[in-house]
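Feature request, filed as a ticket because there's no other form

It would be nice if the structure record came with a short human-readable summary line next to the C-alpha cells. Right now we just get the raw output. Example of a typical job, pasted below so the devs can see what we mean:
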Amino acid sequence: MKKSNNYGIDIKALANNEKAIEILLNDYTRLHDKLEEQNFSAKTDVENAQTQIHEALEVLDDGFVLYDKEDRLVVCNDAFKKQFGEVGKKLKVGETYETLTYKVAYSGIVPNIEGKEDEFVAKLVEQRKSDEGVEKVFQTHDGQWIRQRDKRNSSGGLVGLRTNITELKTREEELAKATRLFTETTDSMLQGIVVFEDNKIQFYNPRLLELLQITENDISIGDTFEEFLNNLKACGHYDNNDEIVQKNIEMMKSGEVHQVERQTHYGTNLRVDVIPRSDENVILTYTDITEIKKRELELEYARSESETVFNRQSRIASAIVQGIIMFEKGKIVFFNDQAFETLELTKDILYEEQTFENFLSMQVEHGCFQTKEEGYEFVNDHINVVSIGIPYQLERTTKNGKTLRIDGVPNKKEDTLLLTFTDITNLKERELELNKAKIEAEKASEIQSASANAMVQGLLFFHDSKLEYFNPKFLELVGAQKTQVRKGMSAAEILELQIQLGVFDDEISSQEYEAEIKKNFAMQNSYSLERTMRNGKTLKVDAVVTDNKGLVVTYSDITEAKKHAEELQETMKIAESAERAKSEFLANMSHEIRTPMNGVMGMAELLASTELDTKQKMFTDVIVKSGASLLTIINDILDFSKIDAGQMELDPAPFNLAEAVEDVATLVSSK
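Raw output as currently delivered:
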C-alpha cells in the first residue's frame, strides 16, 4: 500500500487484506493523535486523509469498527452498521460501546430480553472485558452468522472485524447432515463394510462385526490388510490357513475388482466384494448370502416352473405402458422408455437435467395437448398442486385422444418429485360401461324390489345363514314390526322372534316346527312345511337351497286354499253318494224291466212253436230277437252299474260274428 503526502490510499489493494487494515488502523491512530497536537493549518489534509480512509473501509465486505482507549466509537463502516438494523444507521462517533449496547437492547431486535435489558447490557460489557482478543461467533437478529475478532492497538484502542460467515455455517450444517446420513445409512445396512486408505482401516460399520462374529477388540482403525486378515484367521476364519490369507492379501492389493464366496466356520455363507478406489485404497463389503444359497437349491428344483412363470411375467411386463419420470431439485434425473410412448414424446422434449416447468411447457409448444389453452391450464394446475407438497393425482387427454392418469409423489424435504403416467383410456371406457351396467342393475334391483314388495307371499333370503332381504308381506303374515326384523339376523333369531310373537296355535306345534326347521338348516336341505297360526290362518313355508350358500324362504297364506279343499272334499262325497244312488236305481229298474220282459220272451217263443204262416213266422222271430236285444241292453245297464261300483268281471265267450252283424242290420232296418 502506497501513501502520498496527502495520505492517498490505494483502495483496491486495501480490499480483503487484513494486514492492510491493521497498517491502516495504526496510521489512522497516529493521524488521530497527531491532529490533537497539530494546529488547524493541517486540518484540510487530515480531513482528506480521513475521507480516503472511510472510502477504503466502505469497500470492505467485512464490518470494521475502531474504538479509542476510552471505548468510544472512532470510526466504522456500513457493513458494521448493518448488523444492528435501524440502530446502526444512527451510530455516532464518540458514542461508547455501552451506549450502543443499550440502544440495541431497547430497540427490540434482540429476542427474549424484554424487561431484562439492563442485565443484558451489563453482561455484554463484562464479557467484552473478559473476552478481549478471543474470536467469537454469534447470530444477528436477521439470522446472519458473524465471526467477531477484536484486538487492541498500540494506542490502547480496540479494533474490531465482523466477518459474515453465514454461507460457511450453512455448508458446515450440510456437511454435518451428510455425515449423519452416511453414518445412519451404513449403520442400518445389511452389508458389512470396511474401508482401507493407504493400506489402513479408516472405517467399518457395526454390521461387519455381526457378520464376521468378531468384537471391537479384534479390529482397530489403522490396521493394515495383513493385520485385518490375520486377526480374522485368529478368530477362526480361513480355516487357520496362511496360504488362503496370503491369497486374499494379494487379491486386495491387485487393484482389480473381485467377488468371492466362502463359508464361515459358524455355517453362514458370505459374499466378499473387493472394490479398489485408488492405489492401496480399497472397500470391502461382506454380504450374508446364506438364505440366497438355500433358495438356490429350492429354485433349482422348480426351474421349469420358474421359467414358465418368468415368461408369463415377461409378457405381462412388456404389456405395461406406465411411464416414470423422477425430478430432483427441479430437474429430471431419471425416466424410462415407457415415458416416451405413454406421453407421445420425442427425445427433444424429454431429457435429463430438464427443469419441471420447461418439461411441461415444451409439451404444450410441441402440440402434446389437444389445444394450447387446455395445455397451459393443465401446466398451471400441475405446478400449483406440486407446490402443496402432498401426493396427488391428475388426469389429462393427449392430442391423440388418450386419457392419462398422472400420479405425483413430491418430497419437500429431499426436494424430489416422482411422476408416473398411466394410459387409462380403456379404464375410462370400462368405467362408462360399468356406470351404465350399474344403472341397469339398479333399475333391475328396483324392479326386483318392487316385484318382491308386490308379492302375495312373504319372502326371506338368507346367505351364509344370515338374513339378507325380506319383504313387507312377511312382516304382515307373521305379525311383526319392521323394527323387529333387520338384515344380518340368523335363521334361529327369526324363528325365535316368531315364537315370541305367539304365531303358533300351541306350544307343541312351535316346538315341533322349531326342531324341523333347525334340522333342515343344519343339513342345508330344502323343505316344505305347513303350520297353523294362533289367529287361525294356515301358512305354508317353502325353503329352497341355492348354489351359492343361499336359502330362499317363502311364506304363503293357504287358509282360503285349505277351506276350498275341504269344500271340494265335501262336494266329492255328495257326488259319490248321488252316483251310488243312480247305480242302485239303474240296477233296480233293470230287474223290474227284465221280469215282464222274460214273460214277453216266453210267450213269443211259445207262439213261434205253433203252426204259423211265413209272414206270422217272421213277425214272431222279430219279437223274439227284439226282446233278446232289449234284454241285452238291460244286462249292459247292469254291467255299467257294476263298473261304477268297481265290481265288473269280464266273461269271455265264443259268438257268431256273421249272425251278430245280421242281427244289428235287422234291428236297424226294422226302424
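Something like this underneath would help us a lot:
The chain has a mean pLDDT of 80.
The longest helix spans residues 559-608.
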